[in-house]
Design goal:
11 strands; globular; alpha/beta
């Protein structure tokens, strides 16, 4: 049962319906420039609502940047793009102290990290030192320069992109940084029909018809509503069973952490809200399992070399082996 003393208050059906309609309008706007990718777009929006960051993996030209820009345009949020390169410095992201000639004092000039949505394009091309400049921002929603802490705007989301086929001139992200991303979403090639539609609509897409249908305060309202979505103990036990199963899997060197369990619950809540429910179902957990877990588990070397096994294959095995509980009773 829902705890009526919760400071989040009761999440009413009317509030959920309003949230779902708002998200549908956002998706409709994004769909003007992004053909297909409905599930991927929905998961990215759910990650924003859950207060998380997203790692997009895909080859060049599959609309990773377009999705990020369209999300910012449709939600009315400020966005900045940072092109990561080997010579990029932490100060190029966070900002730098500059001398004000009028006053003779140093003042802080804010970098592009001070935006609601920050696109970290080709994040693995920057050095580990520069990559680490994002850690405090992603975890604490703040940056510290010369001992002074500056809060980042709310909402705040990092959308980072990676090319899965590049091995030269890149610096793999360490596990600690990968763990900061709520979800890793794979953007694959479009289907033949989608490709034809992309070419047909190219001129319209270039004109950028996406309009703002929301504002920052409405997104914050969605985030608040998602925190009020009910998660039954049955679902929490299911999440724990999935995480525990990854730690016992014979092909994994490193299983999922407690942060992964928290991420499963948070993204499931946001997805349930988007689907118009006040409670999480086991199927919501299954739906977000791959985006949440694929970058948080590490295969044994022999699994990658001999068996040609991918993290998604292991997650499929785990979901097949862990019994799916019956849907919990709808909360009052």
């Amino acid at each position: 049962m829902r705890d009526e003393s919760s400071p989040l208050g009761e999440l009413t059906a009317a509030r959920v319906g309003e949230a779902r309609r708002l998200v549908e309008r956002i998706i409709a706007e994004i769909s003007k420039v992004v053909v297909g990718k409905k599930e991927e777009v929905k998961l990215i929006i759910a990650s924003l609502i859950a207060g998380g960051h997203v790692l997009l993996e895909g080859v060049p030209g599959v609309a990773k940047t377009t999705i990020a820009r369209a999300l910012a345009s449709a939600t009315g949020l400020e966005w900045k793009r940072i092109q990561f390169t080997p010579d990029l410095l932490p100060s190029d992201i966070i900002g730098v102290m500059v001398l004000d000639r009028r006053t003779g004092e140093f003042r802080f000039r804010r970098g592009p990290i001070f935006a609601n949505i920050v696109l970290a394009d080709e994040i693995n091309r920057a050095s580990p030192r520069t990559q680490s400049a994002l850690l405090e921002a992603m975890q604490e929603r703040q940056v510290t320069v010369e001992g002074v802490t500056y809060k980042l705007p709310e909402p705040f989301m990092v959308i980072a992109t990676m090319n899965p086929v590049e091995f030269e001139g890149v610096f793999p992200l360490p596990e600690a940084q990968l763990d900061r991303f709520l979800a890793k979403i794979v953007i694959d090639y479009p289907s033949r029909e989608e490709l034809i539609e992309i070419v047909r609509r190219h001129d319209i897409i270039e004109e950028w018809p996406v309009r703002s249908v929301a504002a920052a305060d409405q997104i914050l309202g969605l985030m608040s509503a998602a925190r009020g979505v009910y998660v039954d103990d049955v679902v929490l036990e299911y999440i724990a069973d999935i995480v525990e199963a990854t730690r016992r899997h014979p092909l994994l060197r490193l299983g999922a952490s407690p942060r992964a369990a928290i991420a499963l619950a948070k993204l499931s809540r946001a997805l349930a809200l988007i689907e118009g429910r006040t409670y999480v179902l086991p199927d919501d957990v299954k739906r977000v399992a791959k985006p949440v877990l694929r970058h948080r588990i590490t295969l044994k070397p022999e699994a990658e070399i001999e068996g040609n096994v991918l993290p998604d294959d292991v997650i499929d095995q785990v979901l097949a082996e862990v019994p799916t509980p019956s849907p919990p009773a709808r909360p009052l």
